[in-house]
Design brief:
This protein is mainly α. It has eight helices and no strands. The protein has one domain: Vanadium-containing Chloroperoxidase, domain 1 (Up-down Bundle), CATH 1.20.144.
Length: about 180
């Protein structure tokens, strides 16, 4: 099933140059949109700084979890097992397909913003979905990698929010030093 859904999406790669360019740009440049948002939140008021710091903690935890998973679990990328349409930049053959760091980090940031600001969080979730779709389109991840990475990013937000009392002193200390 995973391979069939992958092929259903990836078969269009190379047929529509404009879509290929859009997907490459989403994959490569969405992180700058997220970074711009982080900076924008940081330079607003203390409420938005709290959102930015909560997002920073969540993204950091998600990144560490992604690295740990890749150390203990290896899943070959689609272009190693199947004939796929591959768009640049081509990742290393030694890098695991699961989890998709791009997708996990995008969903972690979107969900952490959603906790405090629903509309902005939904917009970021839509961008995160496009990031995940772009990774399949480009031939670099299976749909199960993207869905699992989205669950990882969203789940991390849930856990960080549940353990907020442990993070709060850190966030408060940073807020006091910058206000």
């Amino acid at each position: 099933m995973d391979n069939r859904v992958f092929k259903a999406i990836n078969q269009w790669t190379g047929n529509f140059r404009i879509l290929d360019l859009i997907m490459i740009n989403i994959s490569k440049r969405a992180r700058f949109v997220f970074l711009f948002l982080f900076i924008l939140l940081w330079f607003r008021n203390d409420v938005y700084k709290k959102i930015a710091l909560f997002s920073c903690v969540t993204v950091s935890v998600t990144y560490l979890l992604s690295i740990m998973i890749k150390l203990v679990y290896f899943k070959p990328r689609p272009f190693l097992n199947h004939g796929v349409y591959l768009l640049p930049p081509v990742p290393s053959k030694k890098d695991s397909s699961f989890p998709s760091k791009h997708t996990a980090l995008a969903f972690a940031l979107a969900a952490s913003v959603f906790v405090y600001h629903r509309i902005l969080g939904l917009i970021l979730w839509l961008l995160s979905i496009l990031v995940g779709l772009s990774r399949i389109w480009m031939g670099q991840h299976y749909p199960s990698d993207i869905i699992s990475s989205a669950i990882l990013g969203n789940g991390t937000v849930f856990v960080v929010k549940l353990t907020e009392q442990y993070w709060k002193p850190f966030v408060t200390r940073i807020l006091r030093s910058y206000t």
